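Lab meeting, item 3. Inverse folding demo.
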């Protein structure tokens, strides 16, 4: 039948609230490319379709007279909306997809009153197609702040950590790598330090990263800036060896890489000015938004699973938090009070951790209201972690990822008006070129397949995943495009602290003092984050094993004997200001929080007991 129109006509049940809701949403997606009508009005014009067919399923009438119904009609209708052609392609080509879709459609159609109640509960009375312009604006600025914290925190520490006179000098590393590996070194150790390994060039990378972070916060050339930020931080992370191998460093690189494709690469209007009522804008790619949400899911879900998969008894019997606040690397003052909470509260808290890390992440893929609830829970969880422990920029970066669960419609209501008005009231979308669309498809396929393999390896073990998949992920690993996550799989139940000492005669020993890690018993835990004192952190890891298992520790002791000024600058106090000592050694103590009565009487936050020698007395060879 020909009706004189060149656009398809979708006919639905006008008496069904669920149908009206879905049609209203579909109409906003397809615009004037599809017409919609209730069968109560349109049925007389299509007498060849029985009335019962209209009551049981939607009918899509094509301009040439053919028609389809049910799930096929729904997917064919959505194919007229930008970015929604893939369900119809799957319906036509994916084995089993069509019958499963039709079965699901019939199930929903037969219970429309029930699903209408669920719709009202999870989506509300009406739903607009979600946009993420303001979401992207907010996320990129928070990411800029994270990059600023990362680069600015690292910059003054570079000379002492990895400079020419630091603990792990980069020139020595690259010299050894180039002789051991050969040409493949550029892929296995991707760093711009191959151009120049001097301390000055490393400082340049950190300083330029700091400046670029400020430009990202200001919204200046976000796409190119993000590319440079990722390249510079990858260069420092590769050259940083043990000192830049933390999970938040890896997380920043993965999130920063995806953000390159999320950011706008051409800005017509300066980002610091309020935008007009309408503007040209390239919408954030939905695939990249979902890849970043998938990253948040993997980060949180993996952190919960590894706690159970490790078979650690403290997690399984819900006693882990009875140790955590005291034994974590750099506790805050609040951790002292949290440590003394009742045992029943600690066990309930551990149960809450499992719920938040294993169950709540699935809300990321839930309907809008549930997704918002998941965002709120995850943000509160990160804030709770932040007030009890100094985890550099990890909490801020995770919160930034959580904000990608929100959309513009929600942010307009909660953000100050001056920020919300940066999003135009009407947008003229810029259609991406076919090359860009193809690039996003390829990127999505690579990242999604690799990340699924890494998650499977975490859950089931790499020996139970295909070897070719492990090799493919291994090829990407040096670039930290896809990584494995899982925090505190095994809970540390004792806090060992290393105290480094120097002496000129081998009899009288004086302590070197660090800036932030526990040492003096009356030294209150410090608020440090988002700054990260990376040597203090590594000292915590070194105390978990022997100095032979931490080769950098022997290099640290050698630099103290040499009186290396960059290394001494990382410490709080040098007991040998005039000349380096002749001997150094390291003792290891067991540290525990004091009780309320002891702290009231002595003012001490800590008490300790000597465990023995960590590093025997040593001197430089003459």
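The presenter then showed the designed sequence:
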């Amino acid at each position: 039948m020909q009706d004189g129109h060149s656009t398809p006509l979708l006919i639905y049940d006008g008496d069904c609230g669920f149908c009206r809701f879905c049609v209203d949403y579909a109409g906003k997606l397809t615009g004037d490319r599809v017409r919609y009508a209730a069968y109560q009005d349109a049925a007389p014009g299509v007498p060849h379709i029985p009335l019962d067919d209209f009551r049981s399923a939607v009918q899509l009438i094509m301009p040439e007279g053919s028609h389809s119904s049910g799930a096929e009609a729904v997917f064919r209708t959505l194919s007229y909306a930008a970015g929604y052609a893939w369900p119809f392609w799957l319906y036509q080509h994916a084995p089993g997809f069509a019958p499963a879709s039709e079965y699901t459609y019939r199930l929903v159609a037969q219970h429309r009153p029930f699903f209408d109640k669920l719709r009202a509960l999870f989506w509300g009375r009406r739903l607009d197609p979600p946009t993420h312009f303001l979401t992207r604006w907010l996320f990129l600025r928070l990411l800029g702040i994270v990059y600023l914290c990362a680069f600015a925190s690292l910059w003054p520490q570079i000379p002492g950590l990895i400079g020419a006179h630091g603990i792990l000098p980069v020139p020595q590393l690259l010299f050894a790598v180039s002789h051991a590996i050969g040409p493949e070194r550029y892929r296995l150790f991707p760093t711009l330090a191959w151009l120049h390994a001097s301390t000055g060039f490393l400082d340049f990378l950190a300083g330029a990263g700091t400046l670029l972070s400020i430009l990202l916060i200001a919204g200046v050339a976000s796409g190119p800036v993000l590319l440079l930020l990722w390249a510079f931080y990858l260069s420092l992370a590769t050259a940083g060896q043990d000192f830049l191998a933390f999970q938040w460093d890896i997380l920043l690189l993965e999130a920063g890489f995806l953000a390159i494709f999320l950011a706008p690469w051409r800005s017509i209007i300066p980002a610091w000015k309020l935008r007009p009522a309408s503007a040209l804008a390239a919408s954030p790619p939905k695939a990249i938004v979902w890849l970043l949400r998938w990253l948040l899911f993997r980060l949180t879900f993996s952190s919960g699973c590894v706690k159970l998969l490790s078979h650690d008894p403290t997690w399984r019997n819900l006693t882990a938090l009875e140790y955590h606040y005291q034994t974590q690397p750099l506790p805050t003052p609040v951790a002292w009070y949290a440590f003394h909470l009742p045992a029943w509260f600690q066990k309930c808290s551990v149960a809450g951790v499992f719920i938040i890390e294993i169950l709540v992440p699935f809300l990321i893929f839930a309907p809008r209201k549930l997704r918002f609830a998941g965002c709120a829970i995850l943000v509160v969880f990160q804030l709770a972690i932040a007030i009890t422990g100094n985890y550099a920029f990890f909490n801020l970066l995770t919160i930034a990822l959580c904000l990608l669960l929100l959309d513009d419609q929600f942010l307009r209501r909660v953000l100050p008006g001056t920020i919300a008005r940066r999003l135009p009231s009407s947008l003229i979308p810029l259609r991406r070129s076919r090359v860009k669309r193809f690039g996003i498809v390829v990127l999505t396929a690579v990242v999604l397949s690799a990340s699924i393999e890494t998650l499977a390896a975490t859950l089931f073990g790499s020996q139970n995943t295909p070897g070719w998949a492990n090799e493919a992920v291994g090829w990407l690993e040096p670039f930290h495009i896809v990584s494995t996550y899982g925090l505190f799989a095994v809970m540390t139940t004792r806090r060992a602290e290393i105290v480094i000492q120097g002496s000129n005669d081998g009899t009288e020993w004086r302590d070197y003092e660090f800036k932030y890690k526990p040492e003096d018993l009356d030294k209150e835990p410090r608020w440090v984050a988002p700054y990260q004192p990376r040597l203090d952190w590594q000292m915590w890891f070194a105390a978990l094993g022997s100095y032979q298992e931490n080769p950098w520790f022997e290099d640290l002791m050698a630099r103290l004997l040499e009186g290396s000024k960059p290394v001494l600058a990382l410490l709080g106090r040098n007991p040998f200001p005039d000349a380096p000592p002749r001997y150094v050694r390291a003792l290891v103590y067991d540290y525990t929080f004091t009780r309320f009565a002891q702290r009231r009487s002595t003012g001490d936050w800590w008490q300790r007991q000597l465990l023995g020698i960590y590093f025997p007395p040593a001197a430089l060879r003459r």
